[in-house]
Amino acid sequence: MTAAEMAKLHSTAMVHGTAWGADTFQDMRAETGHVEVVSPHGFVLGRLILDEAEIHTIAVDPKAQGQRHGERLLRDFVAQVRERGASLVFLEVSEQNAPARRLYQKLGFEEVGRRENYYKPTNRAAEDALILRKLLNS
Fold it and tell me: CA-CA distance, 89 to 133, in Å (whole number)?
């Protein structure tokens, strides 16, 4: 999937927060420790620094949501970073994003912090981000 295709999918899938442009995706791919899992229905982008992984974003085509594509992408991301030496994974999610929060809880992520007014969607009030962590067993 090209950076432009990622940006297009991200803009259709992003309900909470702001969609990113192709330049942002291209820059992320150039980061040290970049980790990417892509399927025909979506993607997860993040990075691994030492033993800590961070998920930058996950996007699933709205037409394919509710079919466990996000779960498979996340499981693949976790497996990939675990194989590369990660002992934990962090991510941020809008407090208002109930479907994503249910998925993260199902996969063993726990709330460890909060960023007030972190997401600033267009034409809506700012939303707090919950900081979630998943400890990876050896």
Answer: 6
For residue range 23-76, list pLDDT tens digits in order: 999 999 998 999 999 999 999 999 999 999 999 999 988 887 778 888 999 999
Return the CATH number at 40.
3.40.630.30
β strands within 61-119, DSSP E:
88-94, 110-119
Q: What pTM did the predictor assign?
A: 0.87
Of 104, 118, 119, 127, catalytic? 104
118 catalytically annotated: no
Q: How far apart are CA 79 and CA 44, in angstroms?
A: 13
Output DSSP code: residue 6.
H
Say whether 104 is catalytic: yes
The DSSP 8-state label assigned to residue 31 in this structure reads: S
Give me the catalytic one of 92, 118, 119, 127: 92
Residues 59-72 as b/e (b if ≥16 CB within 10 A, e otherwise) read bbbeeeeeeebbeb
Look at the chain and report how many structural domains it folds into.
1
